[in-house]
């Protein structure tokens, strides 16, 4: 598995004797998008917590980029390896402009306050412009983040993660609360990002998963219940019984 971006192998974790993740095996290739679906309590959030180092598994390994076992590292070290996580709710700096949010994200390794003292280099300007074009916010660059729509705030935060140049992006239910057209744009954006980076999306909205067009893994009780295309997974009788048919 030297050429895989992410390889979870035999991962288990129990909380007070309850196995939230049970011998889980997941593979994500470079420049591949994977959608994770499954009922509430399936272990989707716990899986993301294990990848990012928030939760340490009891057993198993989490191999990143073919070499590094993440289970030995803390959250900051894992983030620095190139793993970005987008939580469900947008967290942007509301009282700063769209542009300044991106500039802060770009300089984050040197500390947010460095933006107060260092002007952006030509390189930074080019990079921020490119990211704002990707997330379709270039025309709003001087707007305060507070004045963006909910969907635009989500895109801004995705842009801020891109500024960190992650190899793997973990995204938790990005379209909750979005309009239909924002949802469509988000699918397009994530598809574009996954041309060059690995993306894992946890999602309940099946029409959005269809728009993503990616491989799908359905989790239940901390293990893989089914995987394949959305059509394959959603035709699986066990998936219908345990998840889709309820
Ligand atoms: P999902 O994201 O798929 O809804 P979770 O990963 O949040 O599922 O939860 C999986 C199971 O583990 C649930 O039964 C949940 O109650 C339990 N769980 C998750 N985190 C903790 C924790 N920190 N302490 C105790 N139980 C937890």
Structure description:
- The chain is of the alpha/beta class and 246 residues long.
- The chain folds into two domains: 6-89 and 165-244, Rossmann fold; 93-147, no CATH class.
- Helix content is 35%, strand content 24%.
- The chain contains nine helices and ten strands.
- The strands form two sheets. Strands 6-7-8-3-9-10 form a six-stranded mixed sheet, with helices on both faces. Strands 2-1-4-5 form a four-stranded antiparallel sheet, covered by helices on one side.
- A hairpin with a 3-residue loop joins strand 4 (59-64) and strand 5.
- The longest helix has 14 residues, at 180-193.
- The structure holds adenosine-5'-diphosphate (ADP).
- Residues 15, 20, 38, 40-46 line the site of adenosine-5'-diphosphate.
Largest sheet: 6 strands, mixed
Query: If strands are numbered along the chain, what order do they take across the biggest sheet?
Result: 6-7-8-3-9-10
Number of helices: 9
Task: Quickly count the domains.
Answer: 2
Order of helices and strands: EEEHEEHEHHHEHEHEEHH
β-strand percent reads 15-25%
Q: What's the CATH class of the largest domain, please?
A: Alpha Beta
CATH superfamily of the largest domain: P-loop containing nucleotide triphosphate hydrolases
Shape: globular
Oligomer: single chain
Strand tally is 10
Bound molecules: adenosine-5'-diphosphate
Radius of gyration: 18 Å
CATH topology type of the largest domain: Rossmann fold
């Amino acid at each position: 598995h030297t050429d895989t971006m992410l390889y979870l192998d035999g991962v288990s974790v129990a909380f007070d004797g309850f196995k939230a993740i049970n011998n889980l095996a997941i593979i994500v290739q470079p420049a591949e998008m994977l959608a994770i679906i499954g009922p509430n309590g399936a272990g989707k959030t716990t899986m993301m917590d294990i990848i990012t180092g928030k939760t340490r598994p009891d057993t198993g390994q989490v191999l990143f980029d073919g070499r590094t076992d993440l289970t030995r590292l803390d959250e900051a070290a894992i983030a620095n390896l190139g793993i970005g996580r987008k939580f469900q709710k947008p967290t942007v700096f509301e009282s700063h402009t769209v542009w300044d949010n991106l500039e802060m994200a770009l300089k984050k390794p040197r500390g947010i306050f460095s933006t107060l003292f260092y002007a952006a280099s030509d390189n930074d300007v080019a990079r921020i412009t490119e990211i704002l074009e990707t997330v379709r916010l270039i025309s709003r660059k001087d707007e305060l983040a507070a004045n963006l729509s909910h969907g635009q705030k989500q895109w801004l935060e995705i842009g801020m993660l891109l500024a960190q140049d992650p190899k793997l992006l973990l995204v938790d239910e990005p379209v909750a609360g979005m309009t239909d057209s924002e949802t469509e744009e988000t699918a397009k954006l994530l598809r574009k990002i996954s041309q060059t980076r690995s993306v894992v999306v946890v999602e309940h909205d099946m029409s959005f998963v269809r728009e993503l067009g990616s491989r799908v893994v359905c989790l239940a009780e901390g293990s893989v219940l089914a995987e394949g295309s959305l059509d394959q997974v959603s035709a699986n009788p066990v998936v219908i019984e345990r998840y889709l048919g309820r």
